[in-house]
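Researcher: Sit down with what I've pasted below and flag anything odd:
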Amino acid sequence: MLRKIRVISAVIVLLLVTWLFVDFTGTAARSVGFLAKVQFLPAVLSLNVAVIVGLVLLTLLFGRVYCSVICPLGVMQDVVSWLAGKRKKNRFGYSKPKNWLRYLVLCVFVVAVIAGVNAFVVLLAPYSAYGRIASSFFQPLYLLANNLLATIAEKADSYMFYHVDMWVLKSVAVTGVAALTLVVVAVLAWIGGRTYCNTICPVGTTLGLLSRFSLFRPVIDTAKCNHCGLCSRNCKSSCIDSKNSAIDHSRCVACFDCIGKCHQNAISYKMRPLAAKREAGQEAVDGSRRDFLTTSAMLATAAVVSAQEKSVDGGLAVIEDKQMPERKTPILPPGAISANSMADHCTACQLCVSACPNGVLRPSEDLSSFMQPYASYERGYCRPECTRCSEVCPAGAIKPITKAEKSSLQIGHAVWVRENCVPLTDGVECGNCARHCPSGAIMMVPSDANNPESLKIPVVNTSRCIGCGACENLCPSRPFSAIYVEGHEMQRMI
């Protein structure tokens, strides 16, 4: 029964988290957005005390239930392992814990968080790793299915579905990292079950330190055990030493597979005696309590420390794609406050990138902010009424803002490029930028101060400009816009 509850819960969570990353309507964010906020590392980085305390208590009470039910990367490994088990039964066996590797990776991870080496941190964050996989590979399939249904619905005079712009390859680097992560995790899960969780994952190691002291745990009744080894051969964590009737609870993910496999009913999930002796044969790191306290202190320190494509010529000529201008300062998502704040909190999970309805956000390929989101306006612009990215961010990297605050938040300012402006290059009236500026920050003035009848050019009032990018996106100049947005080091309200 426990295993059935665990499996059903895990499948539901995995499907809902995946939906969160592939949905483009905002429905998932409003309905199940809390699943992103209860992930361990985003909660730590956002200083979400309630979630952190809840997960710590959950682990101290029931063991690593988080790894088996809540963590999407962990559940994905179980799915791969289950598929592998269809080909070969009883394929696991007890192996000694590779504690030197586990704690080395954890220490390096903590140091990287404190030092702000984000490129390393985001690679190992399990929730973010799954987010990149879902965003890179599952969302395009979801969008394709939606567009096919929209085509079918249109033929039936139904508008239940609508076509959306597909953006398959948002970033070569992110897609490559996602593909590599998927291959490594899937291969390890296919061969050894939870090898990744118990050797590489820093969250798994941290919760493993906690689970040593869990109140409820799988326990072997030595009076009933005949040392057949069936439990060990079915343990995906390779943590059951059947010869010595011992379980390494730091690696046990509370999957309950062993309970159902034991023909002698020798394994049960029950409360441990408070004064229980250490089980024979179980290897433990000397001073595990001290290691736990040290690790907790280090983590606490670390925590403190479609887009649109516009037809501007009536479809009479081929429209050249816009190219990204060279910005001195990147444009951060509205609510990100500053680059330093983004670096301290962002886990590069790609949830905001997937959720952006206007195709504005994309992952950075710069090493200093690797895979973290930034804005660019070749495919759309940041609509003043949209706050989707701030609504879905689980780590506090993008602070929640209201629609009223969004319309007054300066994330950058527009810059006019004279040599690209259509009135001066083609000798025709334009004014697209001024007409579509939602903040009224652009005025059209005569290009010749001595001739009021001369063609008009834009003048930007930077004190009113919010950096939404409507002017840049809708400028007819190709491939570079005659007006573009330069980011601000620090976002501010006007």
